[in-house]
Structure formats: structure tokens, C-alpha cells
Amino acid sequence: MRVTSADIARVFRAEHGRAVSVLIRALGDIDLAEDAVQDAFAVAVERWPREGMPPSPAGWIITTARRRAIDRLRRESTREARQAAAVALQAVDPGRGTHEPDEEGPVKDERLRLVFTCCHPALSREAQVALTLRLLGGLTTAEIAHAYLVPESTMAQRIVRAKSKIRTAGIPYRVPRDEDLPARLSSVLAVLYLVFTEGHTASAGDGLDRPDLAAEAIRLARQLAELMPDEPEALGLLALMLLTEARRPARTDAVGDLVLLPDQDRSRWDADLVAEGQALVRRCLRRNAPGPYQLQAAVNAVHTDATDAADTDWSQVVALYDHLLLLRPTDVVRLNRAVAVAELDGPHVALGLLDGLDLTAYAPFHVVRAELLDRLGRRDEARAAWAHAARLTDNAAQARHLRARADATGDGGLGGTGLRS
User: Fold this and answer.
1) Strand positions, DSSP E, 18-125
2) Residues 193-213: tens digit of each pLDDT
3) CATH code assigned at 30
4) Which end of the chain lies in a sparser environment, N or C, as judged by fewer CB atoms within 10 Å?
5) Of 47, 64, 95, which one is at a domain's C-terminal end?
6) Bridge-based pairing state of the strands 204-205 and 394-395
């Protein structure tokens, strides 16, 4: 079977994080590990279409990356450094990471270990999340900048500074101790959620989503919840991911066009994921220690409780967002609350709530505004807002949907944000 660039891209998305994790553990150098893995994928792009996919693509990538790293060390390092690095790299086994005995510690998974390493308290929150998205998810600097609503140059500087801080401070890539985990949990949760968000709706590209990235985030969230079962926010994040992921089968139509939440065929939602997510929400409620991820999961639980969009308990959604605002008073939360208010008090009230929100570079803001304007009969303004939102997104499926709305400003419920699906 002919290997295509799409096949290699799927391997990259699935295996980049593991390969980088293994090489960082062996090398102790993030830049060298990342460069070696990138080199290995460049070789794959050249060879695989001609020679075919190897039996173990992940093992091939790790082995090739190891050889590239050894070559670079031989060219650039001192004799002593070359010898030390060669010993470490020769131990790398693509099948299980290394031949060294397993380190004692609570975190066994290489990729989750990488997340905890990047979430070292010596780094700023922005640097922690950006670096992990780069190393674990293989996201480009542009994709990470899009997620943070900052210029690409700003994000590039953050990543460079984070790597430099790890190198100069001598932050080790090792199994975090039990006492290290709580201090890093908040950052780890943020990282996993942003990885999942990129998987649920890709910041760029032809496809609406990246299912493999979402699946990896869910896998790591499950491990985190198992590792820290007494942390309700870890359970809340897993519930949020599961309830969101449950909608994936209904998010697009037969030709791949976006279907918003109010218009989805709810019989196509994954009933098992809905049941598991709702059970986790109930566990969180019994603990009575609400946090941001638990509240967002509860909002999604309300949506999945409804048999159709008209049956949604919007008063409960508003109450949950009111509580969320006390914990996380951000403009994005205010935007989502305004959507729910529109269902209770009408579009005029909700439109007033958008005044003063600093979200002019955020496509969902313009989508919500367009929907509200459309409901109020202000069609020309709505059409301009739809078109502006389309220009702000690099996701082809979203942009196509938004341009269609600009061409025919039809009726319809918001069901979350205007891009919620």
C-alpha cells in the first residue's frame, strides 16, 4: 500500500509526544530531542512513500531519532560529552523507552511524565502550557499562539525562554515525587485541556478536528484521575472531555460540514461516554468542592441531559456560569454566559453583555454577536460579523460554515457559543 503524506501526518500526531519523551529522558536535552525527532520524521517523509510503512512506525521514528542525535553529538560535543551521551542513547529501546530499571515514583507513563516536567513551578503558567503543547502534541508555534490569542512571535519567545529556563536551571526530566504533584496539578490540567481542545476543534487545517490528539488527551486525563483520585478537578476535567467527545459523531454531516449543537442528531452521540461523563459529574457533586473544570463539565451534563435543544435547562446553565465567573472571571466565560442568557432573557439583553469584552481577535465572539444581531433583525450587521468571524479562523470547516451563514443569515439557536459543536 502506498504511503501518503496524510499517513505520515497521522503517525506524527500519534507518536510525536512519545518519541520526544523517550529522547528527552535519554538525553536530558529538550532541544536536541525535539530536533532529532523532527529529523526522523523528515527522513520518513523521504523514505516511507518509496519503501513502505515500517512494521512499527513508532519504533522506527525513535530509532532514527536516536541515530540522528548521536550523529549530532559526535559532530558538536566534546569527547567526554560524546561518550556520556552515547551510553545513554544506546540504551534507548523503542519498545519500552530504555533498558534502564524503572524509576520509582508515582508517574509511570512517559508522556504524562513529560507533562509534569514541563509544568515545573520555576516556569510561568503560559510557558508551561505552551512548551507541553509543543512537545507532547507536536503543535506548531502558530497553533499554540492561536489557542492563547497572542501573536505567533510572542508565543515563539515564550517557548524559547521556557526551554532556556529548564536548561539553565537544571530542571531534571525525572519521575515527579508524590509531594511534587499537587503544586503542578493546575498547570497539568490546563495543558491536557488545551491539548484536548485542539483535538476537538483544530486551530488550522482542512479537517474540523484531530481525533487522535483528543484521544491522547483523554488517555492522559484518565491516567491523571487514576493517579490522583482524590483531586475533584482531575475528575472534572475527565468528565468535561468525555461529555464533549461524546458529541463527535454528530458534529459533521455526510459531506463533512459543521453541525452546531442545537441541530445535532442526539441519537448519534456516544451513549457510553455520556453515561461515564455524567457519572463523574455526580461524583464531583458529592464532594462539594467545585472548581472550573467541574463546573464546565456540569454545563455539558445539562446539555446531554436534554432530549433536544428546546429541552435544555438554560436557567441551570446560567447559574453554573455565574458560579464559574466567581472562580474564573474571564471574558470567554462571560461570553458563554451571555449565550445562555440569550435563551432566557432574549438577544437584546445578551447583546448588551458583550459590550466591553476584550475579544475582538476571538472568532466565537463575532459568531455570538452575529447570531444575536440576526435574531434582532439587524441582518446587515449580522452578515458583516459572520464574515469577520470567518476571516479570523484558519479551520477550513469552520470558515466554510461561517461564510455560509454570512451568505444566508438564517435562524437557529446558539447552543453554547456560536461555534459550539
Assistant:
1) 92-93, 97-98
2) 988 998 899 887 788 888 888
3) 1.10.1740
4) N
5) 95
6) parallel
Burial 110-138 (b: 16+ CB within 10 A, else e): bbbbbbbbbbbeebeebbbbbbbbbbbbb
List the Cα angle 161/128/13 in 5-degree steps.
Answer: 100
Q: Name the amino acid, one letter, at 227.
A: L
C-alpha cell at 280: 463523574
Tell me the pTM.
0.79
Cell matching residue 382: 449580522
Residue 204, strand partner residues? 394
In a domain, 19, yes or no: yes
Max avg pLDDT among 65-74, 214-223, 266-275: 266-275
Which grid coordinates are listed for 110?
512517559
Burial class (CB in 10 A: 0-12, 13-18, 19+), 104: exposed
Q: Which residue has the cell 461570553?
A: 335
Domain that holds residue 402: 353-421
pLDDT tens sequence across 120-178: 777 877 778 788 878 777 777 887 787 677 788 888 888 888 888 777 766 655 556 77
Q: Residue 19: which of 3, 8, 35 has the closest Cα?
A: 35
Which residue in this structure is represented by grid cell 487545517?
Answer: 205
13 found inside a domain: yes
For residue 30, being part of any structural domain is answered with yes
Residue 2 in domain: yes
Tell the residue number behind the cell numbers 483535538, with chain if given. Answer: 199
Q: How many CB atoms lie within 10 A of CB 168?
A: 8
Q: How many residues does the chain have?
A: 421
Domain boundary among 37, 63, 95: 95
